[in-house]
Design a protein that fits this description.
The complex is a heterodimer of chains A (about 150) and B (about 500). Chain A is mainly alpha-helical and about 150 residues long. By secondary structure, chain B is an all-alpha fold. Classes of the chains: A mainly alpha (about 150), B mainly alpha (about 500). At the A-B interface, helix 1, helix 2, helix 4, helix 5 and helix 6 of A face helix 8, helix 9, helix 18, helix 19 and helix 20 of B.
């Protein structure tokens, strides 16, 4: 049945159509004088054909596939993963404004508390040590020029 | 004789104090990584890639090779003590290794695994020395059309032996090739799929992509359920196998070396498939096949030797053909390209210090790993007890800083996180990232060869079939693609 496969194949088919149209717009040229768009166009067509085969070999109606996929997705335990993504993105957006030390401490502390929410003391100690050690390794030893922050 | 002289030349490079240090650092970190379930050699190599910027190319590849070999060695420790493979190619070791540990024979299991890996690695390195240069000479005769067909064949083998659906693996390979097109076209200078974003002008960064797909996505998967693992707690005694153990193991070690080496050379096979094949072979040959899975030392000696032999053999296609046979070798290829070196059949002639230095250092690394693995087992057992709740924040931090430090550009970090999400979703929807990575690395090279072929043939696409070697590669590729359909029809007919 594979409802996940059905939905993902549809996504890749639409992606393939987009890539093909975009490549055509860039310009295909001829086989002798290939333009920049020829190779990605061929790949788009190949991906489209493969995803179409994948789509039609899944013998489940599309509506049912969407419904079952929704049920499966609801059953995923992604709370921790989503929190990690938010924290990593937050770190990326703030590190150049607030500086390496503060953001790194905050990141390690928050990531640790995702898995062990009650062990605050261990989180504080781990975050402090990690920040200091990574600062020494990257800034001093490897001379990586870490962001100091807009306020320093 | 030339190869022997070149090998001595290589030793003169590998034995430089700095290179010895990086070799040791690589094998130590690799073993540490191999011991820890949750982060594989691919993720570790991608984490450390930015730091190899500052090293010479030879030192960089020596260190990365050490990590790769160390991870293979270290993976067996977790398989035997915890029944969780430290990395994918140690899965088979769990079957009998853990049972031996439960019977109080963890020491001989760990010992024979280390010695078997050393013997296999030593023999395989000589195979590398004698096979790679002649293969490179043959590869020099290949033109652009043959190269395109060989890459297509490599992808086909990779998707055929992959764990999941062949169709999905081919889709991932196509996607990887498409992602490789992002950026400036090398010939016309036109931008493709850039949409005004400066960060994409040079294409998607290899390191952010690999770190995202391997490192971040692995963290996102593992952090869903942080499991407690049951670790073998008893004192480990008697690491040196007895005479009886050696008597039972020596032939499986030699057979495993042969299986691993010759299968490891084939692009696409990697390290996992040969270990399963070897285990099945040992079971078939054994006088007591019913005892496999209950603690047979042959079930540890053979697959571990196969694993290590395949690990060495995967360097051959990379160095002699310029084709990475696995995702991990694709990372190695990325490392070479970062240092301005283009893996190709000419590489052995143009950069002999790199090739022979790395080959010699692999032999030294084998010795270091034997010394590291046996006495440091109590240390590895302690490290196994470090909770994942402490490990994953540190791994995440390394990913972030490592990516940022490449260009001091936060856009690279955001690209890494986005690919981490992509990799996570790919896992959820049962797609493999390995074909995507391989295709991404090979894509630009494939496109150059493809366009060269068409230009040389005045736009005639039949050139790929007209040239006999190219035609052979394509016929084999089609045969491999058609094979599963044939088997399925035959199975239906038999039912």
């Amino acid at each position: 049945m594979d409802p996940l496969g059905k939905c993902s194949c549809l996504f890749f088919f639409l992606l393939a159509v987009y890539v093909s149209i975009e490549s055509y717009r860039i310009g295909l040229g001829t086989l002798f004088h290939a333009e920049a768009g020829l190779f990605p166009f061929i790949l788009g067509v190949v991906l489209g054909v493969l995803s179409a085969i994948c789509f039609f070999t899944r013998k489940i109606p599309l509506g049912e596939a969407f419904r079952k996929t929704g049920e499966i997705v609801k059953g995923w335990k992604i709370r921790n993963s989503l929190l990690v993504i938010v924290m990593l993105l937050g770190y990326a957006l703030l590190v150049e404004k607030l500086g390496f030390l503060l953001c790194t401490f905050g990141l390690v502390f928050s990531l640790f508390t995702i898995a062990e929410p009650k062990k605050i003391r261990i989180a504080l100690v781990t975050a402090t040590f990690s920040t200091l050690i990574s600062y020494v390794i990257f800034q001093i030893v490897l001379k990586a020029h870490l962001p100091r922050g807009a306020f320093l | 004789m030339d190869s022997i002289h070149n090998l001595f030349y290589g030793f003169s490079i590998a034995l430089e104090p700095l290179n010895l240090f990086y070799c040791f650092l690589g094998v130590f970190i690799g073993t540490l990584v191999g011991v820890l379930p949750g982060i594989g050699p691919g993720a570790t190599m991608s984490l450390l890639l930015p730091f190899t910027y500052h090293l010479r190319p030879v030192s960089s590849i020596i260190m990365l090779s050490g990590i790769f070999m160390g991870a293979n060695y270290g993976g067996s420790t977790t398989s035997i003590l915890v029944n969780i493979p430290g990395e994918a190619s140690s899965v088979v070791t769990c079957f009998d290794g853990y049972m031996m540990a439960k019977q109080g024979r963890a020491g001989p299991a760990l010992g024979i695994s280390a010695f078997g890996s050393f013997i296999a690695g030593t023999i395989s390195i000589f195979g590398l020395v004698f096979f790679a240069p002649p293969l490179a000479n043959v590869a020099l005769e290949l033109g652009p059309a043959e190269y395109v067909s060989l890459v297509v064949l490599s992808f086909t083998i990779l998707v055929y032996v992959g764990r999941g659906s062949m169709l999905k693996a081919l889709m991932m390979a196509s996607l990887g090739l498409i992602l490789g097109c992002v950026g400036l076209d090398f010939l016309t200078g036109k931008t493709r799929f850039v949409y005004g974003m400066p960060v994409l002008l040079d294409g998607i960064g290899l390191i952010p992509m690999i770190m995202g797909l391997f490192g971040i996505s692995e963290i996102l998967s593992n952090v869903e359920r942080i499991l407690e693992t049951e670790i073998y707690e008893k004192r480990i005694r008697g690491l040196l196998p007895s005479r009886a153990d050696w008597g039972k193991s020596i032939k499986p070690i030699l057979r495993g070396t042969g299986v691993g080496f010759f299968l490891g050379i084939i692009p696409g096979i990697g390290g996992i498939i040969p270990t399963f094949i070897d285990y099945a072979l040992e079971k078939k040959i054994s006088k007591h096949p019913e005892k496999f899975g209950t603690g047979m030392i042959e079930g540890v000696a053979g697959p571990e030797s196969t694993n290590n032999a395949a690990c060495q053999a995967t360097f051959i296609p990379l160095f002699s053909l310029g084709i990475p046979p696995s995702a991990v070798m694709a990372i190695m290829m990325g490392a070479l390209m970062i240092h301005g070196l283009q893996p190709s059949p000419m590489m052995i002639k143009k950069s002999p210090d790199l090739f022979w230095g790395v080959v010699s250092s692999m032999y030294i690394a084998n010795g270091m790993l034997l010394i590291l693995n046996l006495p440091l087992i109590p240390l590895w057992v302690r490290i196994l007890k470090v909770p994942y709740s402490i490990l994953f924040p540190l791994i995440s931090l390394f990913c972030m800083i490592g990516t940022y430090s490449m260009n001091n550009n936060i856009a690279d970090v955001i690209v890494m996180i986005l690919f981490g999400i992509v990799g996570y979703l790919l896992r959820k929807f049962h797609y493999e990232a390995a074909p995507l990575i391989m295709a991404f690395v090979l894509g630009p090279i494939l496109e150059v060869a493809f366009r060269q072929s068409l230009t040389l043939s005045h736009g005639n696409p039949i050139v790929f079939i007209q040239r006999p070697v190219s035609a052979c590669f394509l016929i084999v590729a089609v045969f491999i693609l058609v094979l599963p359909i044939f088997f399925r029809r035959r199975a239906h007919a038999l039912e």
